[in-house]
């Protein structure tokens, strides 16, 4: 693995010279894959946290003798799931941004600054484009 600290823009260009199109397609596919994984992970965590919350409310509504103990356990479990979700989101964001940076660098050679240009429908933008 090559660290970003050791790769200059010139070295990066040298590493991918002649392979920009394929590298861009790969970076776009991997970025899309990372986004799909994010939503899959989010669904799992929503399920776990929702089940924990439902369990907490079920315990509160019941007449169980150990209501306080079960409530504390379920609350702690909810905190653990929430913190784990936070950590997983940070990791997911890191890798998504990594592939977006690759796209930013590679797209200029292949398609131009397609992902960097934002168009709007207001009148001043339309005059500038035409």
Name the average pLDDT: 88
Shape by Cα distribution: elongated
Q: What fraction of the residues are assigned to beta strands by DSSP?
A: under 5%
Q: Give me the secondary-structure category.
A: mainly alpha
The biggest sheet, with number of strands, parallel, antiparallel or mixed sense and barrel status, is: none
The percentage helix is over 70%
How far apart the termini lie comes to 45 Å
- SS element count, helices: 4
State the total count of DSSP E strands.
Answer: 0
Along the chain, the helix and strand elements come as HHHH
> How large, in whole angstroms, is the Cα Rg?
23 Å
How many structural domains?
Answer: 1
- Low-confidence stretches are none
Architecture overview:
With 130 residues, this protein is an all-alpha fold. It has one domain. 77% of the residues lie in helices and 0% in strands. The protein is built from 4 helices and no strands. The protein has helices at 9-15, 20-61, 67-110, 123-129. Helix 2 runs antiparallel to helix 3.
Keywords:
130 residues; 4 helices; elongated
Topology:
Layout: H1 9-15, H2 20-61, H3 67-110, H4 123-129
Helix pairs in contact: 2-3
């Amino acid at each position: 693995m090559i660290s970003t600290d050791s790769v200059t823009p010139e070295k990066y260009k040298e590493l991918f010279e002649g392979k920009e199109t394929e590298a861009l397609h790969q970076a776009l596919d991997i970025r899309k894959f990372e986004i799909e994984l994010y939503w899959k992970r989010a669904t799992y965590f929503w399920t776990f946290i929702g089940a924990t919350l439902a369990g907490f409310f079920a315990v509160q509504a019941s007449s169980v003798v150990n209501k306080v103990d079960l409530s504390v356990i379920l609350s702690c479990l909810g905190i653990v799931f929430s913190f784990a979700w936070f950590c997983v989101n940070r990791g997911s964001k890191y890798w998504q941004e990594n592939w977006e940076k690759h796209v930013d660098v590679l797209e200029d050679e292949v398609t131009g600054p397609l992902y960097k240009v934002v168009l709007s429908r207001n009148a001043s933008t339309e005059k500038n484009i035409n």
